[in-house]
Write a structure and sequence with these properties.
Shape: globular
Helix content: 40-55%
Number of helices: 18
Strand order of the largest sheet: 1-2-8-5-3
Order of helices and strands: HHHHEEHEHHHEHHHHHHHHEEEEHHEEEE
Largest sheet: 5 strands, mixed
Distance between the termini: 65 Å
Length: 424
């Protein structure tokens, strides 16, 4: 068995999964023999629709050993909630995202995490986010105006992708002419959180990271000489007990803000729109009663979460669900499964925009709760409000293209056909 585990890790690390189906199959057979169920993170079926597999694992082996990536997967709401809240027994330092040579807030534990988050949060206050509302509305209007003469268009390209990219780039203080490069860098760097990658994806991520670091170095030097009213200048000026961000911390933070600020909102808008289009009764309900929008956004976050997986490292031996997790082992919180746990949510596979429950785990829990959650919700609220107001009807043109990612679950394309509302 140890030889098989070693072989599996070599496959993942050298990224030969696409050409080694026999070995992958052997690991799946091993998992099924141990637990009665196999959790194949590398399968296309899982990427396209992970929820049936989540439910199978949740019912048969909720604390499941992932042999392919040598980790444990938690799929029950209570177990995931406990993992994310308990930073004493489960930490982030030591998670293997070794494809890139920097760390971010997501890789740190207290006290380093406490210090760094305190500094970053000074530039991400509730007032800062609220002040962005009018600008976000203008961006949404501009993006939808650009396709106003078309009955059919790709909603991802038209709105879901550019909106958060423009917002975070402007917050950072990036010139408008550089946003296309930011978009490409963000897309490539976002791959590093995936548990299974091919060699070409790692090379893309490293290349994008190097280019982005070089770019940010230049911007930082400019802001040190001539501070502006932007996030980079604010981070340079932020202090807590006389402490400041180091250069490496600054660069890691900027990369995190770029990727997280873009990917989460993009997936919220894309996944959420798709969910409404596939549940026309709920779309009609929201159109007739816009007061349900806040509840609807929480439900869309739960129903098809923008971030599906998170992970921690066990600091000590822990028993969960009768399974002994050893110190140093990786534990994966399957947020998408927890958010559809029937023990936590009534009729969890049903989209109900009036559900009113805000206890989903889409933004995490505990000290690593998403710093930009309020911004993502604001962008989502404005985007959905504008879509509902602008279009008398909206429907799918074709089955959407799903991105080849499982952690940051989202759509590559979402082609829709619209009929403009008379009032617009």
């Amino acid at each position: 068995m140890s030889a098989m585990r070693h072989a599996g890790r070599e496959i993942v690390e050298s990224l030969q999964l696409a050409v080694a189906p026999i070995v992958v199959g052997a690991f799946m057979a091993w998992e099924r023999l141990e637990s009665g169920v196999a959790f194949n993170l590398a399968s296309k079926r899982f990427r396209n629709n992970p929820y049936p597999m989540y439910r199978e694992v949740q019912q048969q082996d909720p604390v499941h050993r992932l042999r392919l990536v040598d980790a444990w997967a938690l799929t029950r709401y209570d177990d995931v909630d406990e993992l994310l809240r308990d930073h004493r027994r489960f930490g982030n330092e030591g998670r293997d995202y070794g494809y890139l040579d920097y760390v971010t807030l997501l890789d740190l534990d207290p006290p380093d995490h406490t210090r760094l988050r305190s500094l970053v949060s000074k530039a991400f206050t509730r007032r800062t986010v609220a002040d962005l509302e009018s600008r976000i509305q203008r961006i949404v209007d501009e993006r939808l105006d650009a396709v106003a003469d078309r009955k059919q268009f790709d909603l991802i390209e038209a709105l879901a992708y550019p909106l958060p990219m423009i917002v975070i780039a402007e917050m950072l203080g990036v010139p408008a002419q550089d946003m296309d490069r930011f978009e490409a860098w963000s897309k490539d760097i976002a791959l590093v959180v995936e548990p299974v990658l091919r060699g070409r994806d790692i090379r893309r991520a490293r290349k994008a990271s190097d280019a982005l670091f070089e770019y940010f170095e230049g911007i930082i030097e400019q802001r040190q000489r001539d501070p502006q009213d932007d996030l980079i200048s604010a981070l340079l000026a932020a202090e807590e007990s006389g402490d400041q961000l180091t250069r490496d911390e600054m660069l890691g933070t900027l990369v995190l803000l770029l990727v997280a600020g873009n990917e989460t909102t993009r997936n919220l808008i894309g996944n959420g729109t798709l969910a409404l289009l596939k549940n026309p009764d709920q779309l009609q309900r929201l159109s007739e009663d816009p007061s349900l929008l806040n509840s609807a956004i929480e439900e869309l976050l739960r129903y098809d979460s923008p971030v599906q997986l998170d992970s921690r490292i066990a600091r000590e031996d822990v028993v969960l669900g009768g399974k002994r997790i050893r110190a140093g082992q990786q534990v994966i919180a399957v947020l998408g499964a927890a958010n559809r746990d029937p023990a936590a949510f009534d009729r969890p596979d049903t989209l109900d925009i009036g559900r009113g429950e805000k206890n989903h785990l889409a933004f995490g829990r505990g000290i690593h709760y998403c710093l930009g959650s309020s911004l993502a919700i604001l962008e989502g609220r404005i985007a959905f409000t504008s879509i509902l107001a602008r279009y008398a009807s909206i429907r799918l043109v074709a089955e959407p293209a799903v991105r080849n990612q499982i952690v940051l679950r989202g759509l590559e394309e979402l082609w829709v056909e619209v009929e403009h509302s008379p009032r617009t």
